[in-house]
User: Fold these one by one.
Assistant:
Number 1:
Amino acid sequence: MSQTKATRFLDTHGVRFSAHAYDYEPHGGTRVSSQKLGVDEHTVIKTLVFEDEAKAPFLVLMHGDRTVQVQALARQTGHKSVRPCAPDVAQRHTGYLVGGTSPFATKKPLPVCLERTVTLLPALFINGGQRGLLVQLDPADLVRVLAPTLVDCAAP
């Protein structure tokens, strides 16, 4: 497996991780990646690109089997409103293709919100910087290198 910006970032920051490649399916999301890797979808964390009312971008890291309650997210982050970015806008902010968006080594530094319950997992899987690549790591390392704001905005 070749290195990505995200895996180089993890190496540089001393994060122990294992890389897991799978056959990417467009629009398959965490349901497909978790099935292909044989892991619980709850442990696969999706990286979502949101923007606030001033169009300032930020990332939301959420369990694969949950959705974001946008009103709760706005309230907890002190914004009037928030919404997901369009795919082309998300790519412009992160430098990653949708389906391969990693929270590590984004094109420009972005604030990160992390669903609080992710920190309770023994390990998590998150995009490694390209479509068809997840990295497994300890949630404590994710918190250490990203310094996220913890939020409670998950909906089934």
Number 2:
Amino acid sequence: MQVIRITKEFKFEMAHALKGYDGLCRNIHGHSYELLVTISGIPVSDTDSTKLGMVMDFGDLKKIVRRSIIDEFDHALVLNRESAEDFNMDAEMFGRTILVDYQPTSENMIIDFAERIKPLLPENIKLHHMLLRETVTSYAEWFASDNE
């Protein structure tokens, strides 16, 4: 049996601010994010299965990632919980704000995203790799092999 990797891509819009940062990213600003999620496993060999030949149905992977990440983060403002005191969070424009316990960099967000996805995958499927593209030229990557 051979292990195969499959990847599903997602796109979402999100704003953030980096409290205490010494550059422009300390201000609220947004990005068009791209998230690539790669899983690995052995394709189903049961000839009676409707998933014959699949590592995992792309649609099932899409549901997991949408529920755990995209539906929450798309068109949201993500701030370090400590930043909330810097803003009038009662204003209507802050209605879709996510407060996290970390600086919302691509590096920290991809760690958070990996931790959200891993427990939702079937036991025979492993999260192999994730890539979070923040701009056309900048991205963060997470590999299971680096975090075992």
Number 3:
Amino acid sequence: MSTVPSAYKDLLEKKAFASLATVNADGTPQVTPVWFDWDGSHIRVNTAKGRIKDKNMRSRPTVALAIMDPENPYRYLQIKGRVASVTETGADAHIDALAKKYLGKDRYPYRKADEVRVTFTIALDRVQVTG
């Protein structure tokens, strides 16, 4: 299944964190909790250029995400996918929108002066649900 069932789409809209798994250069997994949003068909995540997840997703675009319901962690989505696009264009506005969703703040408060933000759009290859 590569679409999210209707009964689980709420997990894509609420303030749930995703655990994003990427693959390191040596083949080992790397997992990071991330903020995300959903454009109706893709998951979007944002990071700073040069971070491990940035390097991993650029070099090895296969990823997995687990998104747990914050009210019931036994109810979750598991998504296997691939990076469909990477862009710096609009990435500052994207992290600000995520800060609004997750922190209730209009601007991302942890921005560093020298960092370059990047948005990764992830296409869903397989979706599994539990709970």
